[in-house]
């Protein structure tokens, strides 16, 4: 079983890989908003696994790291000519996911 210490960096790497898949390789799904839901979920889990891994670490560090990852992946999508476009609404979905994930983690960890 994967430890929570290994899960956090691996989840971060998964986000980078998924966000940088060339556009033609991204599966087309005809559900309105599914892209934003996926971004929200990826970053909510990011916040949860990092908070679980780094309990003593401040929420601010995890939030800042997540924001840098969110903005960085969108900038890379714009910089690389792989058929992906940066989307500020993806950054918004990522940010909302981070905040909700941190709230869930704070609640779940305080109950242990």
Question: What layout of secondary structure does this protein have?
Answer:
Elements: H1 4-19, H2 34-53, H3 59-79, H4 88-110
Short description:
The chain is mostly helical and 112 residues long.
Task: Give the fraction of residues assigned to helices.
Answer: over 70%
Biggest sheet details:
none
Termini gap: 21 Å
Classify the secondary structure makeup into a structural class.
mainly alpha
Q: Beta-strand level of the residues, as a percent range?
A: under 5%
The helix/strand series, from N terminus to C terminus, equals HHHH
- What is the tally of beta strands? 0
Shape: globular
Please work out how many helical segments DSSP would assign: 4
User: Which residues sit in consecutive blocks of at least 5 with pLDDT less than 50?
Assistant: none
Q: What kind of oligomer do you see?
A: single chain
Radius of gyration: 14 Å
Q: Overall pLDDT, averaged? A: 88
Could you walk me through the main structural features you see in this protein, from its secondary elements to its overall organization?
- With 112 residues, this protein is mostly helical.
- The protein has a domain at 34-110.
- The chain contains four helices and no strands.
- It has helices spanning 4-19, 34-53, 59-79, 88-110.
Q: Which structural traits does this protein have?
A:
single chain, 112 residues, mainly alpha, 71% helix
